[in-house]
Design a protein that fits this description.
heterodimer; A: mainly alpha; two-stranded antiparallel ribbon; about 0% strand; elongated; B: mainly alpha; 2 domains; three-stranded antiparallel β-sheet; about 65% helix
C-alpha cells in the first residue's frame, strides 16, 4: 500500500509536512537498531541474494499499481511483503520495502517518499513484533526447521492484521491532513473494503514462505507464484479501467441528455459535486459514496421523456395533469436505473435512492409518501442538494437566488422537508468555502452539445 | 483448458464429422495409453487430489477476449501430466470433463464429449513432447528440466486452442486461422499463469512428504489449497473484468434507449435492434471482437445526438427515405460530439458521425464516398435502414428495398451480407421483430 493523493483543488493542512517528516524520522529511527541487531546475528551471501530476489519480486509486482476509489494505490504486493516478513524477519523485509519504494516512487515528491519509507518500516517492524510476541518464528532465524506454520495460526493472523492496520492508519492520517478530514473518515472510506481483500492475500504470502522453506524447492518455486499474481493484477486493472469508462460514459451521456434545456444544463454535474462533498462531510462509507454518485448522475433521467419538455418550457405553475407527470419521474428514473446495473453491490441501491429523492421528512413528498428514517440517507442527501442546486440556478419559473438565501430557505424547511442534520452539514460546508457555487446568470458550460447545437428557445 | 461454450441451433455435417473424428481419436489414444498405465505409482489420496482439483477448476470458466471461455483446470492437468504421466491424467481429464460438463453444467452430451476428447488428445500429445524433450514423469527438476516443461506447456496451449478453433470455424464459418488468431494471445496469457501454478503443484507434489511431514491426506489437501488460491485469484480477477464489461454494455443499451423515450415518433427498442443487427453483420464480415463490440455500442447510441435537436424539428416521417430537415441532419455530428469525451468509445463515435453517409457520396455530414466511409458506419447504415423499415414492412420487402438502394445509399456488398445473414437464420420467412433473437443467439454472452 502506498499513499497517492490527487484531490481536487484543496489546500493540504500545514501539519502535513510535519507529519510526513515525523513518520519518516521515526521509521528510520526504528530501522537503525533493527538493522544493527540483524547484522549482529550475521548472515550469508546466499541470504543476501535471496533477499535481492524478493526485492525484484516486490518491484515487479508493485509496477503499474491499481487505483482504488478514494485514491489509495493497492497492488497485489501485500502477498510478497508478507512472505518477505515471514521468511526474513522485519529488518530485511523493511529494507526490501524501502528500496522497492525508492525505485517505484522515484518521480514522486521527496517528502512523500520519505513518509512512505517510514510507513513501510513501521508496518514491518510492528507486524514483526506482533508476530513474534504471539509465538511466531521466521524461516531465516536460528532454531529447528522446517517451521511448523500449522501451529502458529494466531501469530500468522496477528502479523497480517498488524501490518495492514499500521500501514493503513498511517496513510489515513496523511490523507486526512491532505484533504482536511478526519482520519477515521478516510480510513472508513478508503480502507474498510480493502481490508478483506488485502488480508485474503495473506495466505498467498504464507504459501510462498512454506514453499521457500521446503527442501529442494526454494527460490525457483517461489518465482512461479508471481506469474498468476501478475496475471490477476492485469485483469484487475482491466476491471478498474472498465469501471472508469463506465463512469465517464454515464457522466457524458447524462450531461448530454440534460443539455436540451440551457437552464438545467449541468444540473446533475453540480448536484453530484455537492452531494459527494456532503457525503464526505457525513462520513459515508465507500460503497455508500459509490451508490450516491451514480444516483446523483442519474436522478433526473426519469425526466427524459417526450411529455416532459413542454412542461419545463412553459413559464408559470404546472397544471394538475402536468403535476402527475412530474410526480412520476422518480419512478421512471428508478426503473431505468434498475436496468443499468453497476457494481454488484450497488445495483438495487441506486434505483432505490433515485426513487426516493423527492420524498420529504414529514411524509408529504412523492411518489410514495415515505417519511423519516424510512427514506434512505443517500436519498435525503440527494434531496437537499437537489433543492439547493435548483434554487441557486436560474429556472424558467423562478429567478436565481444567492446561496445564502437558498440555505436560509433550506433551514426553514428543515424538520419538515429535510433532515436538519443534513442542512446543518451543508451550511458548514458553505461557511468553510467548500461548496463553490457557480456565479452568473447562466452557466457557461462546455458541453459538446452546447457548442454545436442551434440556439434553443428560452 | 479451452472450452467451447456457445452453440448454434443448426449443426453442420462438417462439424459432426470433425467432432466424431476427435472423439474417436481420443478413444484410440486413451486405449493406447492405458497399456502404459502403472509406470508411475499413484496413491489413492494423490489421485483424489487431482480429480477433485480438476473438478473444482473445471467449474471456474474464465471469460476470454475472444468471446469464448477457458477453464482454469489447465493447472491441474499440466501438473498431472508432469507427475502422473499422460495416461493417468488423460483418464482423469476425460472423466472429470464428462462429469462437470455433462452432469453439472448440463451441456449437450456431444459438446461435453468433444471437450473431453480434445483435452485427452492434447494431453497425450503434450506428454509425448515432454518425453521427447528429455522430461521424466514424476521427476521434474529445475532448471535442468525446464526445456521439457516449457515444451509440454506450449504444446498443450497450442493444441487445445487449435482443436477448438477448428470446431468454431466449422460451426460459425470463417477460416481456422482467423479463430486461431483471435484466441491464441488471450489463451497464452491465461495459460502461462495457469502453467506456473501447475508447475508449482508438480514441484510441491514431488516434495509433499517434506511439506506436510506425513503421508496421509494432509499433504494432498495442502497441495490442493496451494493450487486453489492462486488459480482462484486469477479466476476472480478475470470474472470481475468480464462482468464489468457486461454491465457496461447493459448500461449503454439503456442510455441509448433514453433517446427513444424522449424523441417523438421513434420506435422503442430501435437502438438495441440496430446494435444487435450491426454486430451480427460485423461478425459475419469477420471483424475482431473489439470492433464488433464498438459497432454494437455505436448501434445502441447512433441516434443519441437527437437529444440536442429541438422536439419540434424531430417530428418527421417514418419513411427512412424521406428528406430530413437540415437541423435533424445535425444529429449524427452531435452524437459524435457527445461521445467525444469518452476515449474508450472513440471508434463508436466515428461510426455514429458517419452513419448517414451514403455509398454514392451524397450523404451527410461529410459527404464521404465508398470506402472512405468507415466500415462500421456502412454496417450501421444498412442495419439502421433495415430495422427502421421492418417496423412497417416484412423482412423480405425490406431486403428488396435495400437491394434497390444498394450502390446508391448502401455498400452493395454489405446489403448482400445482411441478406445472407437473414436467409441463414430463417428470418425472411418470419414477420418483423424477430431480429434481436437472431443476433443475440449468435453472439458470445459476455458481450451483451
Amino acid at each position: 500500500m502506498q499513499i497517492h493523493t490527487e484531490v481536487d483543488n484543496q489546500v493540504p493542512s500545514r501539519w502535513l509536512p510535519a507529519y510526513n517528516s515525523l513518520v519518516g524520522l521515526v521509521g528510520y529511527g526504528v530501522l537503525v537498531p533493527l538493522t544493527l541487531a540483524r547484522l549482529h546475528a550475521g548472515f550469508s551471501d546466499q541470504l543476501l541474494w535471496e533477499a535481492g530476489f524478493f526485492l525484484g519480486l516486490a518491484i515487479l509486482v508493485g509496477l503499474h499499481p491499481v487505483t482504488l476509489p478514494g485514491g489509495v494505490l493497492s497492488t497485489v504486493a501485500f502477498a510478497v511483503d508478507y512472505a518477505c516478513l515471514l521468511i526474513f524477519g522485519p529488518a530485511i523485509a523493511a529494507w526490501v520495502g524501502v528500496i522497492s519504494f525508492l525505485v517505484l516512487l522515484w518521480h514522486r515528491p521527496r517528502l512523500r517518499q520519505f513518509f512512505n519509507q517510514g510507513q513501510v518500516i513501521l508496518s514491518f517492524a510492528g507486524a514483526g513484533w506482533v508476530y513474534q510476541a504471539l509465538g511466531g518464528r521466521f524461516v531465516e532465524s536460528p532454531g529447528p526447521h522446517p517451521l511448523p506454520f500449522g501451529e502458529m495460526g494466531l501469530a500468522l493472523l496477528g502479523g497480517a492484521v498488524a501490518f495492514f492496520f499500521i500501514s493503513s492508519l498511517l496513510i489515513a492520517v496523511a490523507m486526512g491532513l491532505w484533504e482536511r478530514r478526519s482520519m477515521w473518515g478516510v480510513w472508513g472510506m478508503s480502507f474498510r473494503w480493502v481490508a478483506l481483500r488485502s488480508l485474503a492475500l495473506a495466505p498467498f504470502g504464507l504459501l510462498m514462505a512454506m514453499v521457500y522453506q521446503t527442501e529442494g524447492l526454494g527460490i525457483v518455486a517461489v518465482a512461479l507464484f508471481v506469474v498468476p499474481l501478475v496475471g490477476a493484477r492485469y485483469a484487475f486493472q482491466g476491471a478498474m479501467e472498465m469501471l472508469q469508462v463506465h463512469r465517464e460514459t454515464v457522466q457524458a451521456l447524462s450531461n448530454a441528455l440534460e443539455a436540451y434545456d440551457p437552464y438545467t444544463r449541468n444540473h446533475s454535474e453540480l448536484v453530484t459535486r455537492y452531494a459527494l462533498k456532503l457525503g464526505r462531510e457525513l462520513q459515508l462509507s465507500a460503497s455508500q459514496m459509490e451508490a450516491l454518485e451514480w444516483a446523483c448522475r442519474l436522478h433526473d433521467i426519469g425526466k427524459c421523456h417526450q411529455d416532459w419538455e413542454p412542461i419545463i418550457r412553459k413559464p408559470g405553475k404546472p397544471t394538475p395533469q402536468e403535476w402527475q407527470v412530474i410526480r412520476q419521474h422518480p419512478v421512471e428514473g428508478s426503473q431505468l436505473a434498475e436496468q443499468m446495473e453497476f457494481l454488484p453491490n450497488t445495483a438495487g441501491v441506486v434505483a432505490r435512492i433515485v426513487r426516493a429523492h423527492h420524498e420529504r421528512l414529514d411524509g408529504s413528498g412523492y411518489p410514495d409518501g415515505t417519511s423519516g428514517k424510512n427514506i434512505p440517507l443517500e436519498a435525503q442527501i440527494l434531496g437537499v442538494v437537489d433543492a439547493f442546486e435548483a434554487m441557486t440556478a436560474r429556472r424558467a419559473y423562478q429567478p436565481r437566488r444567492s446561496p445564502q438565501d437558498a440555505l436560509a430557505e433550506l433551514r426553514r424547511d428543515a424538520g419538515t422537508q429535510f433532515e436538519p442534520r443534513l442542512v446543518a452539514a451543508l451550511e458548514a460546508l458553505w461557511e468553510r468555502g467548500e461548496l463553490q457555487v457557480p456565479e452568473g446568470p447562466a452557466l457557461v458550460v462546455r458541453t459538446p452539445v452546447a457548442a454545436g447545437a442551434p440556439e434553443v428557445g428560452g | 483448458m479451452k472450452r467451447m461454450v456457445y452453440h448454434r441451433r443448426r449443426k453442420k455435417l462438417g462439424l459432426w464429422l470433425y467432432v466424431g473424428a476427435v472423439i474417436a481419436a481420443a478413444a484410440v489414444a486413451l486405449n493406447w495409453e492405458t497399456s502404459h498405465l502403472g509406470t508411475v505409482a499413484v496413491g489413492l489420496w494423490e489421485l483424489t487430489l487431482f480429480v477433485v482439483l480438476a473438478g473444482v477448476l473445471e467449474m471456474m470458466v474464465v471469460p476470454l477476449a475472444d468471446g469464448g471461455g477457458a477453464a482454469a483446470s489447465f493447472a491441474a492437468y499440466f501438473a498431472g501430466l508432469l507427475v502422473l504421466g499422460p495416461g493417468t491424467i488423460a483418464w482423469v481429464a476425460a472423466l472429470v470433463v464428462l462429469f462437470t460438463e455433462g452432469v453439472l453444467r448440463r451441456t449437450r452430451m456431444l459438446r461435453a464429449g468433444f471437450n473431453a476428447a480434445h483435452s485427452v488428445l492434447s494431453l497425450v500429445a503434450a506428454g509425448w513432447v515432454y518425453h521427447e524433450l528429455g522430461g521424466k514423469v514424476g521427476q521434474v527438476w529445475l532448471p535442468a528440466g525446464l526445456p521439457a516443461v516449457v515444451g509440454a506447456a506450449l504444446s498443450l496451449w497450442a493444441l487445445e486452442t487449435l482443436w477448438v478453433a477448428a470446431a468454431m470455424s466449422l460451426e460459425r464459418g470463417g477460416k481456422v486461422v482467423r479463430w486461431l488468431r483471435l484466441s491464441l494471445a488471450p489463451m497464452l496469457a491465461l495459460d502461462s499463469a495457469l502453467a506456473s501454478v501447475g508447475l508449482l503443484l508438480a514441484l510441491l507434489y514431488q516434495s509433499r512428504a517434506a511439506l506436510a511431514g506425513t503421508a496421509g491426506w494432509q499433504g494432498p489437501a495442502l497441495l490442493g489449497l496451494i493450487t486453489l488460491i492462486p488459480s482462484g485469484l486469477l479466476y476472480y480477477a478475470y470474472r470481475l473484468q468480464g462482468h464489468l464489461r457486461q454491465v457496461y454494455a447493459k448500461s449503454l443499451r439503456t442510455l441509448g434507449s433514453l433517446v427513444e423515450r424522449k424523441v417523438e415518433g421513434s420506435q422503442p427498442g430501435h437502438g438495441e435492434r440496430v446494435g444487435a443487427l450491426a454486430a451480427a453483420m460485423a461478425q459475419a464480415v469477420e471483424l475482431s471482437p473489439r470492433q464488433v463490440e464498438q459497432i454494437r455500442y455505436a448501434g445502441f447510441l447512433h441516434d443519441i445526438g437527437k437529444v440536442g435537436v429541438p422536439a419540434s424539428l424531430l417530428a418527421k416521417s417514418r419513411d427512412h427515405f424521406a428528406k430530413e430537415s437540415p437541423p435533424l441532419r445535425l444529429h449524427s455530428q452531435m452524437g459524435a460530439q457527445i461521445l467525444a469525451p469518452i476515449h474508450f468509445l472513440m471508434p463508436a463515435a466515428q461510426m455514429v458521425r458517419a452513419h448517414h453517409e451514403r455509398w454514392d457520396g451524397l450523404g451527410y455530414p461529410d459527404g464521404l464516398l465508398h470506402e472512405d466511409i468507415p466500415l462500421g458506419a456502412r454496417l450501421l447504415s444498412v442495419a439502421n435502414a433495415y430495422a427502421g423499415m421492418t417496423e412497417t414492412l416484412t423482412p423480405s420487402q425490406a431486403v428488396g428495398r435495400l437491394r434497390q438502394a444498394a450502390g446508391a445509399r448502401f455498400d452493395p456488398e454489405l446489403v448482400e451480407v445482411l441478406a445472407r445473414l437473414l436467409a441463414e437464420s430463417g428470418e425472411l420467412e418470419q414477420g418483423p421483430h424477430a431480429l434481436p433473437q437472431l443476433a443475440t443467439g449468435r453472439l458470445p454472452t459476455w458481450m451483451l
